[in-house]
Amino acid sequence: MVMLVPELTFLTGLSSLQKSSQMVKEVMWEMMQSPQQHYTCLSSLLRRIRDTPEASRELERWGLHLDTDIHRTQGHVLPMERISLRHRSFFPDEELSWHKEATKEVPISAMPISSWLLVYPKRLQHLAKDLLAAMKSTCGAMGMQVDQPTMQEVWDDRIESYVRSIRSGLGSQEKVQLLVCITPRNRDDLYGAIKKLCCVQAPVPSQVINAQSLMGHPGKTRSVVQKVLLQINCKLGGQLWGVDIPL
């Protein structure tokens, strides 16, 4: 048992109750600030410290002085890199994102998904069917081939049930190219057990998908499936895009 002094401990991160999609979006919004927004926040903080008598006295006690503006230096803006796919190349937008191009164009090399295992809870079999349908309808534009998987149902959400079902599925086929596993919710213990099995005990590329990410608007599900296919292609040895790096 580790005894912690309450006055010396600070809560970090988000609890499971706080990890809602809206909360995560708000946190990411605060983190993904533009340089101008970041500068504005820092300038505001410096002014607040200067105008707060208690803070000013504390700095004086330590012999510290903060300028009212951040340090300025000469910078250099690098030219935009051209992103190359198999049949075309392009420059990314100002947000440095090229997800749309990557999901509508053929990558440099695409790996076919021919012999794979899909493990899912029995009560979420409708989600497994929707996932498979979305993968087959999306893969063509991305230059990928997705064949029918071996479907393996899990009767409950226990770790032992998942491990037993995955072992059974991997043992029933001569060569499994990929394991895709749907979990009912975001559970670190279950995720860790699946990855340990697939990385150490029975090595096979694996993709774990949280069922909650597949629920909601069809457009959202399609976007999730596109990102999953990009990850799978990389894990199987495919190459999504490249940049020109001359000698």
From TrEMBL:
<dbReference type="InterPro" id="IPR012337">
    <property type="entry name" value="RNaseH-like_sf"/>
</dbReference>
<dbReference type="InterPro" id="IPR003165">
    <property type="entry name" value="Piwi"/>
</dbReference>
<dbReference type="GO" id="GO:0003676">
    <property type="term" value="F:nucleic acid binding"/>
</dbReference>
<protein>
    <submittedName>
        <fullName>PIWL2 protein</fullName>
    </submittedName>
</protein>
<feature type="domain" description="Piwi">
    <location>
        <begin position="178"/>
        <end position="247"/>
    </location>
</feature>
<dbReference type="Pfam" id="PF02171">
    <property type="entry name" value="Piwi"/>
</dbReference>
